[in-house]
Amino acid sequence: MSQTLQHSEQHTEQQPALSFEIAAFYAHQMPLLEAREFEAFAQTFTEDCVFGYQGAWELQGRGALLEGMRGSIPRYGTSTIRHWFENRRAEPQPDGSIRVTATCLVSVTDENGVVAFEPSCVVTDELVRTEEGLRARSRIIRHDLPDPGRYFARLAAQHG
């Protein structure tokens, strides 16, 4: 049997377990952000993590991520934030990490029940296994916008 075929069969057998593990990671992680539990959310990332928006900005390290969350989430006020990760594709990497790419929508429901959506985006995570379970070593978000920098500048002007 060829190496490629053996790898494909092994990958197919492991895929359901990996898909479940990844789904469980996001089912744990994203409600922490939505509940504004910033410290617990930051703990789902490695200490040396990278978090950023392609074409706009990037944070390095868990401490910077924590401060970034504390600084940006309050702009939503008392609105409820929900993150919808769909079409996840997991790609195990040679170093043991897992590249997960997903499309994402963020809904914001204000106190009157009015729902608004953030620009759709693609989230690319690099997940690694640690003693505590899966952790995100990297998260890069690419908004479906021609100029994400302009979008973030407008947000800063509105909420700065």
Automatic annotation (TrEMBL):
InterPro entries: NTF2-like_dom_sf, SnoaL-like
Domain SnoaL-like, residue spans: 21-139
Pfam family, one: SnoaL_4
CDD domains (UniProt xref): NTF2_like
SUPFAM superfamilies registered for this protein in UniProt: NTF2-like
Gene3D superfamilies in UniProt: 3.10.450.50
Name the record gives this protein: Nuclear transport factor 2 family protein
